[in-house]
């Protein structure tokens, strides 16, 4: 009996020791695993963040302080007005514009592209959708600065590249177009379940609209090549014109900002420094009896629409009574006003220009021009009677020489791009329309550009100090780091 108890006791010891060893192994395994290390990342929130950042880019300082004033949409008060005088010295602003797009859009989209291309998490549909957002983000940066880090851009985390090389804008544009083409091919006949059913703030995972967006952005980029690479421009545009494009306002790439105070133009309208709409914009709308006047421009205290002249020197500005001028319209500057990155009306004007120049078909160009106006009016809920009246006016029909018709198309494009003021500035730089006249009046500040509208943003001192070799190479190819050095495609 005693021997049996001894054996049982020894067996119990062995079992206990085995359990302890196994438990220790499990504990050690738990210790070896860093509880703070994320083993898998959900790319959906990253995608949604990148999309939201792209739209908020239309509200950043690149639009607010620079593009919106350079393109004569409005005039800002206080120190925010300084870029309107074509002065320089905005190193912090340039650095912020540059970094916000990389940190907001590019960083997140590069992570999505990495995740959706790995064998264990591969998803070609999500990759294609992210690619379209990435193209639009990179296009915005390169259109502002010229040469930028592209092939090595945004790879600080996924590729451990802290001093990325700068690529030529010619290379970037060619690659952006190829990326859009690849994305379109993937999304055609793709399974929507593989997209972002719950994380798409633009089109709620409607892949047909994503295809239209990609083709429309490709058309924009193709037309931007018109003066610098006409053969490629014609080729790209020809491809786009046979593909699905944005055709009505249900296809618009728009979003409502719901965080914080909502649309940033709201605080800029009610806060300080104030924004007053440009005399050039107000006069264009008034002189053509354009019903968008009451949409884009608020009435002043006397019930009139009064613009502020762009570019006044300090003495003339002090006498101009800025406070009495018209604010931005409520439709553009309410907390829930929509943000836009691409619209059907822009597409019609791009097609009208292509028909006029590439197809040499004035009749088709006129039809598309009128359709662009109509679509823009409908975007802002203008009633059908007012649309018919406007289209019956001289402004509603293309006329005159080819140059005069191009001016009409460019002017209506400028209006239709509201409130995407950054794209308005880009289109003026490309086409030359509407004409932003050289400043010769004694009341106007000529700045560092001798009175010519600025052509680009500057590489900041921070970028020059932290990535100096690569920035210097870009400057040597592109031209002096000045705001009147045009980017590659700007030949007007």
Automatic annotation (TrEMBL):
<protein>
    <submittedName>
        <fullName>SusD/RagB family nutrient-binding outer membrane lipoprotein</fullName>
    </submittedName>
</protein>
<keyword id="KW-0449">Lipoprotein</keyword>
<dbReference type="InterPro" id="IPR041662">
    <property type="entry name" value="SusD-like_2"/>
</dbReference>
<dbReference type="Pfam" id="PF12771">
    <property type="entry name" value="SusD-like_2"/>
</dbReference>
<dbReference type="InterPro" id="IPR011990">
    <property type="entry name" value="TPR-like_helical_dom_sf"/>
</dbReference>
């Amino acid at each position: 009996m005693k021997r049996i108890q001894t054996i049982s006791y020894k067996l119990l010891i062995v079992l206990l020791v085995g359990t302890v060893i196994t438990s220790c192994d499990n504990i050690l395994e738990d210790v070896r695993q860093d509880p703070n290390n994320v083993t898998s990342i959900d790319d959906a929130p990253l995608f949604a963040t990148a999309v939201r950042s792209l739209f908020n880019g239309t509200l950043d300082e690149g639009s607010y302080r620079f593009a919106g004033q350079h393109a004569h949409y409005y005039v800002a008060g206080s120190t925010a007005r300084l870029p309107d005088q074509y002065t320089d010295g905005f190193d912090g602003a340039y650095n912020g514009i540059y970094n916000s797009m990389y940190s907001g859009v590019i960083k997140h989209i590069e992570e999505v592209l990495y995740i959706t291309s790995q064998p264990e998490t591969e998803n070609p549909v999500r990759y294609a959708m992210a690619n379209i957002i990435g193209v639009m983000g990179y296009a915005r940066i390169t259109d502002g600065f010229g040469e930028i880090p592209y092939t090595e851009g945004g790879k600080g985390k996924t590729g451990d590249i802290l001093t990325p090389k700068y690529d030529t804008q010619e290379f970037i544009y060619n690659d952006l177009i190829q990326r859009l083409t690849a994305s379109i091919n993937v999304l055609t006949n793709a399974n929507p379940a593989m997209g972002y059913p719950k994380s798409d703030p633009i089109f709620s995972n409607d892949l047909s609209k994503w295809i239209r967006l990609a083709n429309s952005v490709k058309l924009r980029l193709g037309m931007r090549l018109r003066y610098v690479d006409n053969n490629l421009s014609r080729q790209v545009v020809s491809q786009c014109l046979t593909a699905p494009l944005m055709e009505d306002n249900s296809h618009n790439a728009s979003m409502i900002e719901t965080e914080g105070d909502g649309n940033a133009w709201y605080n800029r309208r009610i806060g300080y420094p104030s924004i007053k709409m440009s005399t050039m914009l107000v006069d264009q709308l008034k002189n053509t009896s354009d019903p968008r006047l009451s949409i884009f421009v608020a009435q002043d205290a006397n019930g009139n629409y009064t613009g502020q002249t762009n570019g006044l020197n300090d003495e003339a500005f002090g006498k101009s009574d800025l406070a009495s001028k018209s604010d931005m319209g409520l439709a553009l500057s309410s907390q829930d006003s929509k943000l836009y990155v691409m619209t059907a009306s822009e597409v019609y004007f791009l097609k009208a220009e292509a028909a006029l120049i590439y197809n040499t078909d004035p009749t088709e160009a006129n039809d598309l021009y009128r359709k662009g106006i109509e679509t823009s009016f409908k975007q802002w809920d203008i009633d059908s009677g007012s649309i018919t009246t406007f289209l019956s006016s001289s402004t509603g029909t293309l006329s005159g020489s080819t140059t005069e018709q191009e001016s009409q198309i460019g002017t209506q494009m400028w209006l239709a791009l509201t409130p995407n003021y950054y794209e308005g500035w880009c289109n003026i730089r490309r086409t030359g329309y509407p004409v932003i006249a050289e400043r010769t009046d004694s009341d106007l500040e000529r700045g560092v550009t001798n009175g010519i509208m600025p052509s680009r943003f500057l590489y900041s001192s921070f970028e020059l100090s932290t990535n100096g070799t690569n920035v210097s190479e870009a400057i040597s190819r592109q031209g002096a780091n000045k705001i009147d050095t045009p980017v590659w495609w700007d030949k007007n």
